[in-house]
């Protein structure tokens, strides 16, 4: 691993300052009652109005954190930089399972951005044991949407539901010659065109086929192998990286986008 990057890991104090600014702004307040009458003792705080004890991360999804902040930052840096689990475990001196679990937490807190594709859309499927992945890409853009089906034999209604959920009416939809797309324009207002692969036509769906290839490489590299039950999560992570690369620019950026105070009960 490049030592240049490791030197950029901020100090514990810098990370605390960053978390305080992202979560509380200028002055720390009580995450339960919002009172600013809080006392600090060590790294914790206490509200003098409702007596809640809290820390910078106790009311966020990082609560119960069992890692020093610098280690957390390093694991997060590894994840945002696409360092494979094995290498990240060596680098952070944590077990592979620990790194794997943390990568899962980071993934689970990615923002959910519903994507509607428009103009020209390429749509294709990938298959695994007991599942089908339908993925669409807006041609010439970084916009991608997908549906994960617990069914290795997709039907027309799956294709129609995908279009209704992710394709703007009036768009042009390019697919392979699969029968599930035939007559889709009767169910959703799109103009439909196909590539017939056995006739060596690939032009209209080359971007989505390329994206599937990139996804497979990403998953294999990062997670070594993916069991069927993990596939939906990995696909979600891949699509987020593809569609919103800015979130993965740095740990700062990722935490700014994902860390909020959990609303009081
Ligand atoms: Zn309070």
Question: Taking strands numbered 1, 2, ... along the chain, how are they ordered across the largest sheet?
Answer: 6-5-4-7-8
- The CATH superfamily of the largest domain bears the name Ribonuclease H-like superfamily/Ribonuclease H
Quickly give the CATH architecture of the largest domain.
Answer: 2-Layer Sandwich
- Secondary-structure-derived class: alpha/beta
CATH topology of the largest domain: Nucleotidyltransferase, domain 5
Quickly name the level 1 CATH class of the largest domain: Alpha Beta
Q: What level of helicity do the residues show?
A: 25-40%
Radius of gyration: 23 Å
| Tally of alpha and pi helices | 9
Overall number of domains? 3
Total number of strands: 8
Percent in strands: 15-25%
Walkthrough of the structure:
The chain has 265 residues and is α/β, with parallel strands linked by helices. The protein folds into three domains: 11-63, N-terminal domain of TfIIb (Single Sheet); 66-108; 120-247, 2-Layer Sandwich (Nucleotidyltransferase, domain 5). It has nine helices and eight strands. It has helices at residues 3-6, 12-24, 69-80, 85-92, 96-108, 156-166, 206-223, 231-243, 251-258, and strands spanning 38-41, 44-47, 53-55, 120-128, 131-138, 144-149, 172-176, 191-195. The chain has a five-stranded mixed sheet with strand order 6-5-4-7-8, sandwiched between helices. It has a three-stranded antiparallel sheet with strand order 1-2-3, with no helix packed on it. Helix 4 (85-92) crosses helix 5. The mean pLDDT is 90. Bound molecules: zinc ion. The site of zinc ion (ZN) has 8 residues, from loops.
């Amino acid at each position: 691993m490049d030592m240049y990057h490791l030197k950029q890991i901020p100090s514990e104090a810098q990370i605390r300052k960053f978390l305080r600014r992202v979560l509380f702004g200028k002055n720390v307040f009580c995450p339960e009652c919002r009172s600013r009458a809080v006392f600090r003792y060590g790294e914790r705080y206490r509200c003098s109005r409702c007596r809640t004890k809290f820390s910078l991360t106790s009311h966020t999804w990082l609560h119960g954190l069992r890692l020093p902040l610098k280690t957390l930052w390093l694991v997060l840096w590894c994840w945002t930089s696409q360092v494979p689990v094995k290498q990240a475990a060596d680098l952070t001196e944590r077990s592979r399972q620990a790194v794997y679990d943390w990568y899962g937490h980071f993934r689970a807190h990615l923002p959910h951005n519903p994507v509607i594709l428009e103009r020209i859309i390429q749509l294709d499927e990938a298959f695994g044991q007991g599942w089908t992945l339908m993925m669409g890409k807006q041609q010439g853009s970084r916009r991608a949407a997908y549906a994960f089906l617990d069914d290795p034999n997709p039907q027309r209604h799956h294709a129609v539901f995908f279009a209704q959920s992710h394709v703007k009416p009036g768009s042009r939809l390019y697919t392979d010659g699969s029968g599930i797309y035939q007559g889709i324009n009767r169910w959703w207002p799109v103009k439909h065109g196909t590539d017939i692969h056995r006739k060596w036509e690939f032009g209209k769906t080359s971007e989505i086929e390329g994206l599937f290839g990139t996804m497979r490489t990403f998953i294999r590299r990062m997670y070594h192998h993916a069991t069927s039950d993990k596939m939906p999560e990995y696909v979600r992570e891949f699509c987020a990286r593809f569609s919103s690369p800015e979130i993965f620019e740095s740990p700062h950026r990722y935490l700014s986008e994902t860390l909020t105070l959990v609303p009081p009960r």
